[in-house]
Design goal:
This protein is of the alpha+beta class. The chain has three domains: about 1-55 and about 70-130, Dimeric alpha+beta barrel (Alpha-Beta Plaits, 2-Layer Sandwich); about 175-250, 2,3-Dihydroxybiphenyl 1,2-Dioxygenase, domain 1 (Roll); about 250-310, Signal recognition particle alu RNA binding heterodimer, srp9/1 (2-Layer Sandwich). Helix content is about 25%, strand content about 30%. It is built from seven helices and 14 strands. It has helices spanning about 10-15, 20-40, 90-95, 120-135, 145-155, 190-200, 265-275; strands at about 1-10, 40-45, 55-60, 65-70, 75-85, 105-110, 180-185, 200-210, 225-235, 235-240, 255-260, 280-285, 295, 305. The strands form four sheets. It has a four-stranded antiparallel β-sheet, with helices on both faces. A four-stranded mixed β-sheet has the order 7-10-9-8, with helices on one face. A hairpin with a 7-residue loop joins strand 12 (about 280-285) and strand 13. Helix 6 runs antiparallel to helix 7. The two termini are about 45 Å apart. The relative contact order is 0.11.
Length: about 300
């Protein structure tokens, strides 16, 4: 179940903080998000600019009305949000209770209204029924579309030339991606945990076969606790993975993943971690195109070309 944590705060209280106090608060909130990522609960987070930049849109009697500022007349304003994946509301509240900035405002936790869910409120059930009537049939993509939606806001963001906030591709610009999809054939969860330790991977989504709203295709009956689909990030890249048929015969022949650590020290550390239980094809060393380049196949059979860009 996914829950949206809405961060409300009073801008006057934030403005009254010294820069050191503000730095400490932001650092604590970033640590909270990092902990959510390490535990596999984090999906997406974003902050909002000041309410002075907001515009409210209304339609009344066929007229479009635009007014500056938020609609609600209250001291507390929406300052950001975090989307989490939790077992139930109790777990979501436990995670939310650790949010450091709640002492300056509040954190509202609400379950997402999803077409496949069963809301408890009558109005939500009516809306969910209407949503189901209008859902586009995505076929095999049904289980991955929500992962792809959050990736558009994270994996496709890119810094501006001036080093400012990331800009996001507009519709029709360069929104298409090619993402590697790794079939671990029964060892997916073990691989995700390995990459978490070796490469700092962050699991952003995980669906088991038991979570699927549809039965598996005829002739395919993997254990219900195996991974049907997972999405994870290494650095700024997004990869996908699955247990697929769970036959224990993963095959990654003819494919290598290029890993580009920012410096030699991290290249050496990551190369050694990948080589643990794996096979080194070319030891990490200096070449004419890189100060550090090496090739290693990890314990799952995935080949990595590790190099530091010049």
């Amino acid at each position: 179940m996914r829950y949206l944590c809405l961060v409300y705060h009073e801008e006057e209280k934030l403005a009254a903080l010294s820069q050191d106090q503000l730095d400490a608060l932001v650092s604590a909130c970033s640590g909270w998000i990092e902990d959510l990522g390490k535990s596999g609960h984090h999906v997406f987070s974003a902050g909002l600019q000041s309410t002075r930049t907001a515009m409210t849109v209304r339609q009344r009697n066929g007229r479009l009305l635009l007014t500056g500022g938020p609609f609600a007349e209250t001291k507390e304003f929406l300052g950001g949000f975090t989307l989490i994946d939790a077992r139930d509301l109790n777990e979501a509240l436990q995670l939310a209770s650790k949010f450091p900035a709640a002492r300056l405002g509040s954190l509202e936790v609400r379950p997402l209204l999803e077409a496949d869910g069963e809301p408890s409120e009558a109005l939500d059930r009516r809306i969910a029924t209407a949503v189901r009537k209008n859902v586009v049939d995505l076929g095999e993509c049904r289980t991955t579309v929500w992962c792809e939606q959050q990736q558009r806001g994270r994996a496709q963001s890119r810094p501006t030339p001036s080093g400012g906030p990331p800009r996001y591709p507009q519709r029709g610009e360069d929104a298409m991606q090619v993402l590697p999809y790794l079939n671990f054939d029964g060892r997916c969860e073990e691989a995700l945990e390995f990459y978490r330790g070796a490469l700092g991977a962050e699991v952003t989504a995980l669906m088991r076969y038991s979570d699927s709203p549809e039965p598996c295709p005829s002739g395919m009956a993997p254990p219900s606790n195996k991974v049907m689909h997972a999405s994870f990030r290494i650095g700024s890249s997004t990869l996908m993975a699955s247990d697929c048929h769970c036959k224990g015969q993963p095959n990654f022949q003819g494919i290598s993943l290029a890993l580009t650590p920012p410096d030699g020290a991290r290249a050496e550390r990551m190369f050694a971690a990948l080589a643990d239980g794996g096979t080194v094809q070319q030891p990490l060393g200096k070449t004419f195109f890189s100060s550090h380049f090496g090739v290693v196949t990890d314990r799952f059979g995935v080949c990595w070309m590790v190099y530091v860009a010049p």
